[in-house]
Every structure is written in structure tokens, then in C-alpha cells.
């Protein structure tokens, strides 16, 4: 989901842009845990299980950062945040980082006082419709009533799409994702729209998922990724290179199962990544085995993706653009050297 970068959040940003204090790592260590803002509950990305344990793709990113710092992926306080509240929570310091399926845009990167650390999930806005409508393409939605969540760029993308196709639609918005999907399921709307990745999770919540179809088109670019505040380059580096470490580990064949064995590798790239050569961890305020800690905790990028979205999960999302660059995808990380 993608909240608009204006209104109250922008007002708060005007108070903190250029003034975010350094020392986030020290604060996290002093607290004894990482404060990570995430979704209130979205299959695949972040939701508590029946025992209250948070699980998901974004959750694993939070745990990876905690593992890098504390060698303990459980030293995280998860803060469930709505689309409209997430950026204010980060600006105020209530969260040390966001990992909440948030889209990287120019306005957020330059006017809200934030840094996006990278693209953890390449996504796009899609549609779900009632199967009984026999609609096979989003371009057949002329005159449709469409449900979405308030205050997100989803609304702007819709307007662009329908204007470009010279079509009309009726928009119905709701304050939260749960209200929105319930309204769609009840028949209040012909279609439901949000990020395609989120649609797969929301579809599983419906009483009869097979009665609903996800359209093939994506009508926007939605590069999702973790977010930190401006003003603390060390913290930015830690969260950014946690993402890069996950991707590089997959590319080098380092997995949760073999990471200890791989420390004996003679491959210089592996040696640098796992800290047996050089002092790359120390350069960002961590131990040199920080990547070993990360991979032991959550696996490499491919494992994180497959564990939360892959064929063995109810979502069964294909990696597509989220494959490694050398396998036809877009995931690519700078080298450790």
C-alpha cells in the first residue's frame, strides 16, 4: 500500500527534515531491541500467527537487521501501522525503521525526510474482480465501481489508467484495508485494487477465494522497500547493506543450511561477505560476521521470498522481477569489497 506523501505526514516532515539525529544504532542497542514499523496484518508481508508470533517477508527484514546487531532475530518490537500512520511513526522516532510494503517515490525520498534503502520487492498495482462478472482484463472495467483504501497513491494510479483508456469508473474508498476488502467481498464494488502482491494475500481472506479473479495487468510501478529517516548515514548503511547482504548471499549460494560451511570457502567474494577477510562489518558499526548472523536467522533473499510467497505457501507467487539479475530478474546488489 502507498499512502500519499502529503497532509499531516508532510507537516510533520517539515519539522524533522535535515534534523534527524544520528546515533540510531546506539539507541537501538541501549533499548535492547529494534523498533520496526510494519503492516497491521497482510499475508506474505507481515501478520501474527495464532500464537502471536509475527511472520512475513517484511518481518524477516526486521529480524535480519536485529540479527546483524544483536545476533538475535527476536530482539524486535513490531509496531503495526496503518497506511496513513506509518510515515508519521518513523518521523517521530516511534519506529527505528519501516518494513511495511511501502513504495519508493520521489516525494517520499526528497520531501518527507526519509531514505529508502533499496527495492526489496518489485511490485505493481493490480485488480481483483468477482469471477461472475466474466471480466478478463482491467481494460474491460469501464463504468465499474472500484474499492480501495483512502489516502494512497492507488487513487492517482486509477485516475491515470482510466483517463489513458478513455474510460469512466466510480471510486469507493475506506479508511483501512480490512474495511476495503470486506466491502468488496460484500458486493459493494465490482473490483478491488491495490498492490498485486497484497491482492494475493487479501484474496486468501475471502470466504470463497475461487470466486474472485486477479487481473493480469499491472498499471503502475511499485518498488517496495524498507525506509529510514534522513540524518543518520550509519543507520542508513546498516539497513541498506542488510538488504544487499541477503541478495549477495543468494547469488553466492550461501544458505541458512550451509552458511557455517561456507565460512571455509576460498572464494574471495564469500570470504569478504562472511567476514573471514576484511573488516567490512566493523566499518558500519557491526561485527565482521554480521552477514553470517543474518543468514543464520532468516536465510538468503531467495529463501526469505520463497518462505513467505513461494510455491510452498498458500500465496504461490512467482518471483518474476524479484529473481536475481543473472536469472532474468531485477534483484542486484553491489559487491562487498
Automatic annotation (TrEMBL):
InterPro entries: Bact_solute-bind_prot3, Solute-binding_3/MltF_N. Transmembrane segments: none annotated. Keywords: Signal, Transport. Residues 1-22 form the signal peptide. It comes from the Bacteria. Residues 33-262 form the Solute-binding protein family 3/N-terminal domain. CDD domains: PBP2_BztA. The keyword Transmembrane helix does not apply. Belongs to the bacterial solute-binding protein 3 family. This is Amino acid ABC transporter substrate-binding protein. It comes from Chelatococcus albus.
